[in-house]
C-alpha cells in the first residue's frame, strides 16, 4: 500500500504536466491502460514481488491520471462562474462510486473469487474510461471556439476596463514561478497538514476505538459514515467558495479539526467517536474541489494541472508520513493521544497559514 501511494503521489506531477501540455484525452487513455493492465495482472500474482510490481507500480502509475486532481483541473477550465459548484458536483462521483461500487465488488469477490474480480474491475474500467475519454471529454474550451460558462457575464466589464486602461491581466504562472510566491508555500504547508490528518484518521480510527472497548465492526461503521459525510462536505464547500472565496472555508475546516481532535482526547465512547467521525468526514474532501479553484485565482489556469498535481503530491506525502508516525507513536506510548494532540496543533497552524494566503491574482510583479 505504501508503494502504491508513493508512486501514485509522484505520478500526479507527471500527469499534471502532461495534461497542461496535451490536454486530458490521451492522459486519461494512457493512464487507464496502465491502471487496467495492473489490475488484470494482479489476477495472475504468485509472489509478493509480482504484487508490488502490478499493484504498487503499474496500477498506481495509471491512477495518477484518472483521479481527482486531473478531473478537478479539467472542470475548472470550463467554468468561469460557479466553478466551485461545478468541481464539487464532478468530484462527488468519487464519493458515490465508493459508496455504491465497494459493496458491489465485495459481493463479486465473495461469489467469484478475487482473481476473477480483479480482471473484471480492470476491464470495466478500461471500457468505461476510454469510451468517455474519446467521445465525451474535451480539454480547453478555447480549442473548440467557445467560452467557459459565465465568461460572457464578465466580458463586457473586461472590455470596458481594457478600453479605459493600459493595465493587462497578469500572465499565468507555471510551477517554477508559483513556487517563488509566499502563498504557494503557505498552501503547501496547509496541504501537508491536511494529508496528515486525513491519513492518520482513516488509517487508525478503527484500531483506536477498539482500544476503548468498541468492536471493530462498529469502528468500521464509523469509518463508513465518515466517507458518506465527506460527500456532504464536498457538495457544501464548492458553492460556498463561489460566494466567499476559498481561504475561509478551508480555514474553517481546520478550525473544526482542532475542536474534534481535542474532543476525542477528553471524551471516549461510542457517541463521541461517532460525532468525531461524522464531523471529520465533512472536512476530509473540502480541499479537493477548492485546490484548483484557488490555483486558478492565484496563478491562472494555463498550468492548473501541474500545480494541482504538485500540491496533491505534497498532500499525500504528508498523509503517508503522519499515518506512519501515528503508528510509531502508538507503538512507543501505547496510545494515540500524543498523535491526536500534535494533529490538533498542526490543524491550528493550518488555520493561520490559510488565513495568510493572498487570495488574489499573482503575476510576475509578485515574484
Overview of the structural elements:
By secondary structure, the protein is mainly α. It has 2 domains: 2-136, MFS general substrate transporter like domains (Growth Hormone, Chain: A, Up-down Bundle), CATH 1.20.1250; 175-356, MFS general substrate transporter like domains (Growth Hormone, Chain: A, Up-down Bundle). Helix content is 79%, strand content 0%. It has helices spanning 2-22, 24-42, 48-63, 68-76, 83-112, 114-135, 151-164, 175-178, 182-210, 216-244, 247-266, 270-284, 287-299, 304-333, 337-356. It is globular, with a radius of gyration of 21 Å. 43% of the residues are buried.
Please summarize what this structure is.
The protein is mainly alpha-helical. The protein contains 15 helices and no strands.
In CATH terms, the superfamily of the largest domain is MFS general substrate transporter like domains
Low-confidence stretches: 154-166
Cα distance, first to last residue? Answer: 39 Å
Shape: globular
Helix content: over 70%
Q: Kindly name the structural category.
A: mainly alpha
Biggest beta-sheet profile: none
CATH architecture of the largest domain: Up-down Bundle
List keywords for this structure.
367 residues; mainly alpha; Growth Hormone, Chain: A; 15 helices; globular
Please specify the SSE layout and strand pairing.
Layout: H1 2-22, H2 24-42, H3 48-63, H4 68-76, H5 83-112, H6 114-135, H7 151-164, H8 175-178, H9 182-210, H10 216-244, H11 247-266, H12 270-284, H13 287-299, H14 304-333, H15 337-356
Helix pairs in contact: 1-2, 1-3, 1-14, 2-3, 2-6, 4-5, 4-13, 4-14, 5-6, 5-10, 5-13, 9-10, 9-14, 9-15, 10-11, 10-12, 10-13, 11-12, 11-15, 13-14, 14-15
